Amino acid sequence: MSAGGSGQDPGLSSDDSRSNYTESHGRKDKGKMASRSGEREPLLPRYEDQIASAAAELNQSTPPGSASYGTTAPQGMSPSTSIQESDDRMLWSITKSTFSKLATVFIFLAFGFMILYLLQINSLREEIVRVPQLNIHQVSLDSLDGDGINVQVTGFVQVDYDKGLQGSQFRKSIIKGVSGLIGSIDAGEQNITLYFDQNYNILRSSHNHNSRISDNVENYKINDDDGGDDDDENPFVHTANITVPSLTVDTHHLHNTSFDFVAKIKDFGSPIVIGTIAQHLLANDAMHFKAHTRLPVSKWGWNFGTYDIDFDQIINEDDQDGDNEKPKGLLNVQLEDIKIVPSKNLGLDVITKLSTDYKFSAAADIPSLLWELKIPGCPKPQSSPYQLASKGRTYPIHLLPQSVVGITVESNLAEIPFEILFPCDNGPSTNGSNFKSPLDMFIQKYISGETNLVKIEGSSQQDDSLPDWLSRIIQSVSFTIPFEGKKGSDDLIQGLEFRNFRLSFPPSQPFPPVYAPNQPPRVSATIRVHVKTPNLIDIDPDMDLSVPLTKGSADLFSQGEHFAHIDIDDWIPCTTEHDEGPNTYLVEFDIESVPVEVIDQSVFGRVMREVLIAGGSPIRVEAVVDAEVSTPIGDLVVTDLPAQGDTVIRSSGF
Fold first, then answer.
1. From CA 172, how far away is CA 124, in angstroms rounded?
2. Stretch (H or E) spanning 76
3. Do residues 152 and 262 make contact, with C-beta atoms less than 8 angstroms apart?
4. The pLDDT of residue 376 is above 70
5. Positions of E strands within 559-633
6. In this protein, which residues make up the domain named Tag1 C-terminal (predicted)?
């Protein structure tokens, strides 16, 4: 049958016509692809690519025998009409795909906003405030100003939903997922009320702190209706208010947000509390704090409310694993030098230089401050455990991170305070009768190489330029530092000489002399003592320093054997002059006809024979001397000074 009625070329079958049509379009597509082969791949799909993709989808979804793009139109429908319908279906497919993606994004956003809105529900709010885990690594002084203290705070915040949230794991997973989608939240500037645990260091260390800082300061109060104990046993006391800058916190589960900022501490509570905290900061002690704040939270410009948050934190805690060395505090000081010079006004000027390792990361400038130096007083209960020795001023201190810091203290001594010169009526005594004074006990411990504890207290009189809040706090600062004794090689007595050493016996004694307890021999001599001040103390040569009186006792040794003992019970006048070398003095005095107690008669007899036959015998003298020292600011008595030296007993007749 002829195909002419069909409108096709008689020489072509229907399949051939479809094939030619497809080939012509295929050549066009290949030409387009060839023309674009040298172009970069576009970031977004081209419209024609979307058409081709949609056409492929339509071809795949068209049932066998139905019309499709690139085929002959069904009977009664022109090819142009069929192509138009295919274009409409492709456009609808593109539109549906785009709206599907946008709807997914909007659903997630809506879900996120819903979760953030739900944060304002009390039950979830109470849980969510427990999610952030605050970890403070270090708190150190940054600077001071008229409003308060600026402190450098470093650490991190970790978001841990497993610790903070309750309920099923599915519920936690939903909140974790949405929080991860949110990514972060903005925590606004906070005003934190800080409370200090006054009992923490008392329970964990042997520091001598007050058992209670104060009974009339504001206690830390939280959940008053929880049925707990009343405030009488509450160790937390109000300390200060702290302003903390805003911070963007990562909301992904177990992600850390590090911070390193300067916080302002102001509106201080009791000066006694602040003084105690300052002491711990200087010593780098661990401290226990609690804090309360109202935290504003926002995201994308939307305010999600304010949350009540309480912190419980120990700072400067010891590293339990021992991986990191804990920096030493400023109270670990080394005494470098003490210089004593006559004052231009009255008395003496004492300039003390100390040093300490500053291992913190923050720099700071500390202004000049006035202090009172106290030494241990008489044993209790007669007087205060510490007595004022002098007042001093620290020079301004510039702290540089990880450096050795020099501290200079200048004191003016117009007179020696009577409280440290007056002998105690209990405690150690001299020769079993006269009790020592606090200053005498201090010097004795230093000379013996023992460590004294020196108490430093803020003076009640500070410079007018100092902020009022700081002046009140400094008056409440009180701490002790060790004052180490002299080293073993730093001997106070550099040498001992006996000149014109003579022994005399009663006329009734036979010759060679025989010791009789009721008729002891007597010694006479000129004794010269070479005295040098400790290496750390530099005394101006023009300073009027002398030893007008002395007394004491001595043991005599020959070839290591103790053979005699001498007691000088009465004060003997002395002369003092500068000796060779810096800070060295020569003290000279005479003893006349002092009784000698013979300890070993055989050794004593041998020494006397050597004196008689050889004209002299070498001996060693080990003495304990009491001395009255005269200074420009007053006289003081120093007891039990050790003195030793080698000399020769020479004959001058019996």
1. 11
2. none
3. yes
4. yes
5. 561-573, 575-578, 584-598, 616-631
6. 543-650
Between CA 603 and CA 557 the distance in angstroms is: 9
Quick check: 124 and 166 in contact, CB under 8 A? no
pLDDT band (50, 70, 90) for residue 161: confident
DSSP state of 490: -
Whole-angstrom Cα distance, residue 298 to residue 307?
11
**DSSP-derived pairing of the beta strands 190-197 and 184-187:** unpaired
| Structural tokens at position 201 | 């260091």
* Distance between CA atoms of residues 456 and 478, nearest Å: 6
- Helix and strand numbers, DSSP H then E, in the chain: 12, 29
Q: Could you read off the pLDDT of 310-368 as tens digits, one per residue?
A: 878 887 766 555 455 555 566 677 888 889 998 887 788 999 998 888 776 666 778 89
Chain centroid to Cα 39, Å, comes to 64
Q: How far apart are CA 524 and CA 500, in angstroms?
A: 7
- For 229, residues 6+ apart whose C-beta sits below 8 A from its C-beta are none
Give the CA angle between residues 225, 226, 231 to the nearest 5°: 75
Residue that has been written with the tokens 């005269």 in this structure: 630
CATH 2.60.40 residue ranges of the chain are 336-483
- Helix (H) or strand (E) segment spanning residue 109: helix 79-118
Distances, alpha carbon 201 to alpha carbons 207, 317, 384, in Å:
7, 11, 24
User: Alpha-carbon distance 424 to 422, whole Å?
Assistant: 6
Q: Are 473 and 436 in contact (CB under 8 A)?
A: no
Region of 552 on the Ramachandran plot (φ > 0 left; ψ -120 to 50 alpha; else beta): left
Question: Whose CA is closest to 261, among 162, 174, 142, 358?
Answer: 142
User: Which residue stretches of 45-78 are H helix?
Assistant: 47-61
Contact in structure between 535 and 529 (CB atoms under 8 Å): no
Taking residues 551-579, what's their average pLDDT?
93
| C-alpha span between 343 and 412 (Å, rounded) | 7
Yes or no: is domain 336-483 CATH 3.60.21? no
Write the CA distances from 157 to 120, 130, 629, integer angstroms: 22, 12, 63
CA torsion sign for 638, 640, 644, 647 is positive
Query: What are the helix (H) ranges across 429-519?
Result: 438-447, 468-474
Cα distance from N-terminal residue to C-terminal residue, the chain: 175
Using DSSP bridges, classify how beta strands 546-558 and 616-631 pair: parallel, antiparallel or unpaired. Answer: antiparallel
For residue 437, CA distances in Å to 54, 136, 448 come to 106, 48, 16
H or E element in which residue 364 lies: strand 364-366
pTM of the model: 0.60
How far apart CA 200 and CA 174 sit, in angstroms, is: 41
SS (H, E, C) 129-185: CCCEEEEEEEEEEEEECCCCEEEEEEEEEEECHHHHCCCCHHHHHHHHHHHHHHCEE
Q: pLDDT of 2-43, one tens digit each? A: 334 434 444 434 444 444 444 444 444 444 444 444 444 444
- Of the candidates 82, 71, 91, 57, the one whose C-alpha atom is nearest the C-alpha of residue 18 is 71
358, 361, 366, 369: CA torsion to nearest 10: -40
* 386 closest CA partner among 428, 423, 422, 420: 420
Closest CA to 281 of 326, 320, 329: 329
How many Cβ atoms from other residues are within 10 Å of residue 601's Cβ?
Answer: 12
Quote helix, strand, coil % in the chain, to nearest 5: 25, 40, 35
Question: Average model confidence (pLDDT) for the chain?
Answer: 74
Angle at alpha carbon of residue 608, lines to 606 and 610, rounded to 5° = 70
Q: How many residues does the chain have?
A: 654
pLDDT at 215: 34
